[in-house]
Amino acid sequence: MDEQVSGNKNGLQSTHKGANQYMRMFGQLWRSRALVFLGGRCEHCGNNDSRVLQFDHVLGGGKTELMSGNRNSHQRARAVFKEPGKYQVLCANCNWIKRFERNEQSGYLKTGGI
Q1: How many independent structural domains does the chain possess?
Q2: Mean pLDDT score across all residues of the chain
Q3: Most C-beta atoms within 10 A of its C-beta, which of 15, 41, 45, 89?
Q4: pTM of the entire structure?
């Protein structure tokens, strides 16, 4: 399969595959910086494995923010720098436990699970 090639205003060409890879790396860099900015570990259990760390809205509202357009790593990280008191870092397990305890989960999980 041939890669799609596009030109920019300077006449330079880049592949869509290369552009996607660049944006992914750019987002990961911003995410890493934001995690370090917020302490780099889960606020609840202390886990510091960046593969499982997530940004959590301290007072809820994450779904509303997601629906408003903060969908990629770069946008979420910029929001963390703009309003750091609004966010905390939780590992995936602690984040799901928090959601369950606050009844913030949706659909099938609200009924008690699997």
Answers
A1: 1
A2: 79
A3: 89
A4: 0.69
Tens of pLDDT, residue by residue over 79-109, are 889 999 999 999 999 999 998 998 877 655 5
The closest of 14, 29, 17, 11 to 72, measured between CA atoms, is: 29
Asked if residue 6 belongs to a domain, the reply is: no
Residue 45: inside a domain: yes
Asked whether residue 25 is domain-assigned, the answer is yes
- pLDDT surpasses 60 at 111: no
The rounded distance, in Å, linking the Cα atoms of 4 and 16 is 6
Burial of 11 (0-12, 13-18, 19+ CB in 10 A): exposed
> Is residue 28 domain-resident?
yes
> What letter would DSSP give residue 28?
H
pLDDT score at 3: 46
Report in angstroms the alpha-carbon separations of 81 from 78, 87, 93, 109: 5, 9, 24, 32
The whole domain housing 34 covers 15-109
- pLDDT value at position 33? 94
